[in-house]
Write a structure and sequence with these properties.
The chain is α+β, with helices and mostly antiparallel strands. The protein has helices at 2-31, 176-180, 199-209, 213-217, 259-267; strands at 37-46, 49-57, 63-69, 87-94, 111-113, 119-128, 131-138, 144-150, 154-161, 166-175, 187-195, 220-221, 227-235, 240-247, 274-278. α5 links the parallel β14 and β15. α3 packs antiparallel against α5 (259-267).
């Protein structure tokens, strides 16, 4: 009997542990039941400003914040996040549900580009402990006109001014369907708005922001060749443009690389005839003379 009692006590302890575990798991959804879910992100231009809207199901987040940053970083690792633009906003919201149980986002693409005067791209930079954050890449640092917390439906709205001179230029992307079919030309231009002056720099920022959702549906893609952006853009009197890649650099064995996007994007301007692209370490195959040049890492 003494041994049987020990077994019964042990079984009861196991059942109690299982019951407490199941109970704890069952309460987890109820703890987040009232948490707002980010359902949609959209942006549009209005007279004098671009509007960015975060829409939620349920109530509004308790806290929302937008601020200027020099660089967008990931929450909570602190690693840099690739966001194209001349200026950056960091937007954070709490508490917010931004993903499902299988890890899918509740709001669509984590990274999206816009053909707007100022807003170039919106990139998810964190979804950690009920804090959902985004980096917003802008073409120019202009003032925030206003932020609003609206209801029916629940929305957090950011209006950014567009009161600066601008023009339309071309940005080249790879045409995935033509590339797969081996039907040149593999690159196709689209129109984008950029601030005046520094139109060449603006055009490259538009390249690295990538195609819009409509252009993605048409088969356009940003081919980065492992680069994350560019730096040290210059154009001299001899009509030679020089630009250095940042991040990584690799052709992946292909003859089609980011050079096919950068070169025509820069050569559209009368001040540019030749383009020399440098790797992140600052080297290129033909650094001198009136000729195009790519770094060795972009060779197939």
């Amino acid at each position: 009997m003494g041994r049987l009692r020990i077994i019964i006590v042990a079984l009861l302890a196991v059942f109690a542990l299982v019951a407490s575990t199941v109970g704890a798991g069952a309460t987890a959804p109820s703890q987040t039941q009232g948490m707002p879910t980010l359902r949609e992100i959209r942006a549009a231009h209005h007279r004098g400003y671009d509007r960015l809207v975060f829409e939620f199901s349920g109530r509004l987040p308790e806290r929302t914040r937008v601020r200027w940053v020099d660089q967008v970083t990931e929450d909570a690792s602190g690693r840099p996040v690739r966001v194209a633009g001349n200026a950056f906003l960091e937007v954070s919201m709490f508490p917010v549900r931004g993903h499902t149980s299988d890890g899918s986002t509740t709001y669509g693409a984590r990274r999206r580009a816009y053909d707007l005067p100022n807003i170039a791209t919106v990139v998810n930079s964190g979804d950690f402990e009920a804090v959902v954050s985004f980096g917003v890449g802008l073409m120019k640092r202009s003032s925030i006109l206003r932020t609003m917390r609206l209801r029916h439906p629940s929305r957090y709205v950011i209006d950014v001014r567009t009161n600066f001179k601008r023009t339309r230029v071309k940005a080249w992307f790879v045409d995935q369907d033509r590339f797969v079919a081996n039907t040149p030309p593999f690159f196709r231009p689209v129109r984008r708005s950029v601030p005046v002056p520094a139109v060449a720099r603006g055009a490259l920022h538009r390249v690295y922001a990538g195609p819009t959702r409509a252009e993605l549906r048409e088969g356009l893609r940003l081919l980065r060749s492992r680069s994350t952006g560019f730096t040290n853009l210059s154009i001299n009197r001899r009509r030679i443009a020089r630009v250095q890649l940042t991040g990584g650099c690799s052709s992946g064995g292909s003859t089609v690389t980011v050079a096919g996007e950068i070169m025509p994007t820069l050569r559209q301007f009368p001040s540019v005839r030749w383009v020399k692209i440098y790797d992140p370490q600052g080297t290129t195959e033909n650094p001198t003379g009136r000729s195009d040049s790519i770094p060795e890492c972009l060779e197939p």
